[in-house]
Design a protein that fits this description.
Blueprint lengths: L1 H57 L1 H4 L8 H6 L7 H4 L3 H10 L13 H15 L3
Helix pairs in contact: 1-6, 5-6
Length: about 130
């Protein structure tokens, strides 16, 4: 009789242990997912901030703070608005190539900016076009 009670308690204890273990695993999974999402969002925000700073330092003088090309130099050069259909239909790779190698009156920035900086600027330009 005593052995039966002990066995029952051990079985109940085993179930509780399994349930507790499952809860801990679920909690850890949720926390890791939240951490990963936070890191991704933080990285995107940091890239946008870096892209904005680089854009303001290197691009805004011609393209304007809003990307519309509505500056004296932008008007003189006939720059397109980044929100225009012509620019929006270009892929990121095409925009990166124009920024890196230059095109027409656009100077090349391959020796002035790193590949990461150029990519960050393109990300920022896409945000400008969306009005953010």
């Amino acid at each position: 009789m005593v052995q039966t009670r002990v066995i029952r308690k051990l079985k109940i204890f085993g179930r509780k242990t399994k349930m507790a273990s499952a809860r801990i695993n679920l909690f850890c999974g949720v926390m890791l997912t939240m951490l990963a999402a936070g890191l991704i969002l933080w990285g995107t925000s940091a890239a946008a901030d870096d892209g904005a700073a680089t854009y303001k330092a290197k691009c805004a003088m011609c393209h304007g703070a809003d990307g519309k090309g509505d500056t004296p130099m932008g008007k003189k050069l006939g720059l397109r608005d980044f929100a225009s259909p012509e620019v929006q239909k270009m892929s990121d790779d095409e925009l990166i190539a124009v920024t890196t190698k230059g095109k027409n009156k656009m100077p090349a920035y391959e020796n002035k900016l790193s590949a990461a900086q150029i990519k960050d600027v393109i990300t920022y330009i896409r945000q400008l076009a969306k009005g953010k």
